[in-house]
Design goal:
alpha/beta; 248 residues; four-stranded antiparallel beta sheet; Rossmann fold; seven-stranded mixed beta sheet; N-terminal domain of TfIIb
Length: 248
Amino acid sequence: MTGYDPAAYGNRLGADYDRMYPAAGLETEATVDFLVALAERHPDPSVLEFGIGTGRLAIELHRRGLRVAGVEASERMVRALRDKAPTADIEIAIGDYVSTRVPGSFAVVALAFNNILDPRGLPAQLALFENAARHLAPGGCFVIEAFILGEDERDGSWTVTPRYVGTDHVELQVARFDIETGILERTLVHLRPQGAEFVPVRDVYSGPGELDVMAHVHGMARIARYASWSYAPFTARSRRHISVYQRS
């Protein structure tokens, strides 16, 4: 994808991101509990987050006593994180998480909130697995959160889905999937008392089975898959997945 800027989304929304996506509505506590439990199985309880953003997860992980680091392309997002936790010892490398390296190795590498579905497609998605493998200590785990397209969303027609409903903020997703290219074209519509905001997003969709193959290519095997961070069983009706891949 020519001209792609990995910092563009964060630079556009960094100042408002926490207002648009309040932590309480994103299963944050369960996500932190999940990652802490996984990291603490390792002699060095540590987490590297690709796309650390404004620190929704990282700050809480640090407060729970883990060594935490991150990769983030948007300096605006990182400034928001530092403003929230100015004394937190969280190492952050500014760059594209597809290729940016952080010193050391980690028990867990985490990639939440659909970021594995990189708009640059298969080469970038494979590179994400490769970069995760480079950072994992032996026996460490790469954890991915991503949505699953239902059959009714694959026919090429536009769909409208509520993503967040709060007392003064509603987010609707208007989306269309092209099965030939795998591109999911989305517009996120944020409705608030002061007006509407439209955020265009483009993903290249890969299903859970395709991600399993990418993991295998880079020496990782899936050891668990859930439908939520609260360990809900993954079934044919699940609309998202939390997949855990372990480095052999």
